[in-house]
Amino acid sequence: MWEFFISLFVNTLLWIYDNIGHNFGLAIILFTILIRVITWPLNASQMKGAQGMQELQNDKEWQEIQKKYAKDREKLAQEQMRIYKEKGINPFGSCLPTLIQFPIIIGLYQSITRALASTPLGLLQMGRSLFPFQSVESIIPINSQFLWMDLGRPESVTVLGFAIPTLAIIVGVTTYIQSKLTMPASTNPNDQTAAMSSSMAITMPLMLFWFALTFASGLSVYFITSNLLGIVQYAMMGKANWRNLLPGGNKQNPPARKK
Amino acid sequence: MNAKRFTLLFLALAGILLLSACTTSSATGSNWPGLAADAQTAYLSDGAMIYAVRLRDGAELWRYPEKADSKKSFYATPVLLADGRMVIGSAGTDHCLYVIDTTQVAADTNTPDSTCIFAGSKDRWIASPLVVENTVYAPNNDGTLYVVDLTSGELLWSLEIGQGGHLWSTPTTDGAMLYLSSLDHNVYAINIESRKVAWTADLSGSVVSTPALSADGKTLYVGSLASKVFALNAADGSILWEAKTQKWVWGAPLVDGDAVYAADLDGQLYALDAATGKIAWNSKPADAITGSPLLMGDQIIVTTESGGVYTYDRQGKRGWDAAIQGKLYTTPVQAGDLLLVAPLSNGAEFYMTALDLDGTVRWPFKPE
Fold it and tell me: Which of B81, B77, B100, B98 is nearest to B89 (CA)?
């Protein structure tokens, strides 16, 4: 199953590559757009779920049951489920897209390294992953150069003798911006959702920065494209909280927007 | 909420671990081992280590480096010089071309002396270099042929081949010309004196193996990923004939008098007429064959991906066969009266096996 998943990714990437003038970087960007389009409903559901959970934190009834059943966890859980049901909120709705991101990232990473086939064994495996419609003779060798990068290797630019991981920095910054833009504003000091979002806004950029620093730069191209598309999607849905980019910006609710 | 946070962090860590598991293949890639032998010793380059193994009994004599170094990785076939030195390029991030003196092994570390004579390439060394007297002709994955002085390590000259396509195979030479294949679908003839490309032959598919030169030096035989074997005029690169195969031809063809033997990933062994390319016979012993056929006495030997060792006579009649645990991609090597095979070490019980000429296992080798 996983092998088929990887083969599908490899073939899609290489099909795009073969049809846009053998530019692997552009192929990754277009592939990312494709993934974003396919997962658009899931991402929209995540945003809706996160928004619902956030609003719940400020809901009086919700706050009351937290106090009332603070010592009875079973009853609290029952009451929480009742409110979820009444308000039509799926408590796992905001988690699912995150869950889906991981296999995509891992699959994409494996697909990039397999497609770029940096060794004879890699080329042998890549050749066997190709579907019959692919023009093997035309595809191989894969051009792994994109702008200043070798997409099969971690990237850095040497300035005054120092290797600066520019792509990893951009990955970290765009992930941070995306996380902050989607972080719900909160007036409730005990709001655990906001606290978790705040924590993730730091953890995720650091984690993806480390990924970008360590792994093939093709993965960084995916991260950056995906982050930028995410920001655009949030903005299009009117969910982007631009105030969060300013210091102390998440203390107030953003201006009312279409929900 | 704590549970949710824990779940997300757990998933993040799981993602890191899963990606980390692939770090090695990202940085340096993994590959099948390189194998060579002289009269006394077999040498196996298997990623982090190069092992020297005594032919008599399969005992490990030394290993290089003393401890695994994340920057060093060795998969190319070691090039053995008459004076006991070995030349091998690293497929790691150090980009070093090493000269290892197998006659100078430190008693305390049990590691031979080594020198990185050249580290000026932009990429890794997948191919073995060709060493002629004191000159090293080293094709690099960056698409450049580097010509280096063996003693001083000085870069004598270099030549970017074609559009910089990856170079994964050792050049062959007739003394005046170097013949070099590239993943960019071409075979190049390079005039050693003028240091310029004399001709280029487009074989319509990547070429990952060394061109085989006929005994008279007039014809080159090359297999390509276009699923064909080609005969080229060594003087001008014109195609004399081409023979279709079932799948990719990975290993270099074997030239034996009037016959040329080549194998493909379908597992077919072809005996071709060297003059016309006409198929004299073909046989499929098992599955994919990536190594070159080996002529050992009167036997033609091929190894297959599923670990089979098969022998044929020149008329195509099957002889003995043997089964080795592991995947055999590396071209087998003859060492005196032994046949050496080295499976992909990942998943194999033994890293190398020595067989007698009737297929009986003499010894298997596994690092201690």
Answer: B98
**pLDDT score of B12:** 58
Please say if the pLDDT value at position A117 is more than 70: yes
Minimum distance, in Å, between the CA of residue B274 and any CA atom of chain A: 25
Assign residue B327 the CATH number of its domain: 2.40.10.480
Cβ A215–B15 below 8 Å, yes or no? no
Assess if residue B331 is contained within a domain: yes
**How much is the pLDDT for B27?**
39
Distance CA B191, CA B41 (A): 35
Q: Does A252 have pLDDT greater than 60?
A: no
Residues B349, B325 contacting (CB under 8 angstroms)? yes
Of B203, B139, B132, B140, the residue nearest B173 (C-alpha): B132
Q: What is the mean pLDDT of residues A56-69?
A: 82
User: Domain for residue B360, yes or no?
Assistant: yes
Q: What is the pLDDT of residues B196-230, one digit of tens each?
A: 999 999 999 999 999 999 999 999 999 999 999 99
A102 touching chain B per CB within 8 A: yes
* Cβ contact B23–A124 (<8 Å): no
Residue B248 lies in a domain: no
Check residues B27 and B17 and name the one with the higher pLDDT. B17
Closest-CA residue to A171 (of A208, A122, A141, A126): A208
Domain span holding position B366: 285-368
User: Which tokens sit at B286?
Assistant: 């098992």
Residues of chain B numbered 35-74 and touching chain A (CB < 8 Å): none
Contact call for B23 and A196, based on CB within 8 A: no
Q: Does A45 touch chain B (CB under 8 A)?
A: no
Q: Nearest CA of chain A to the CA of B314: how many Å?
A: 29
ipTM of this complex: 0.90
User: How many separate domains does chain B show?
Assistant: 1
Question: Is a pLDDT exceeding 80 seen at residue B240?
Answer: yes
CA distance B101 to B111: 10
Residues B160, B163: Cα–Cα separation, whole Å? 8
> Angle formed by the axes of helices A120-129 and A96-116, to 10°?
120
Please indicate whether, in this complex, the C-beta atoms of B250 and A154 are within 8 angstroms of each other. Answer: no
**Chain A, chain B: beta-carbon pairs less than 8 Å apart:** 106
Q: Integer distance in angstroms from the first to the last C-alpha of chain A?
A: 38
Are A104 and A219 in contact by the 8 Å Cβ rule? The answer is no
Between the CA of residue B202 and those of A170, A248, A255, B233, B291, what are the distances in Å?
41, 64, 65, 13, 23
Inter-residue contact B15 to A105 (CB < 8 Å): yes
Closest residue, chain B, to A57 (C-alpha): B1
3-state helix, strand, coil in chain A (%, to 5): 70, 5, 30
Residue B124 is assigned to a structural domain of this protein: no
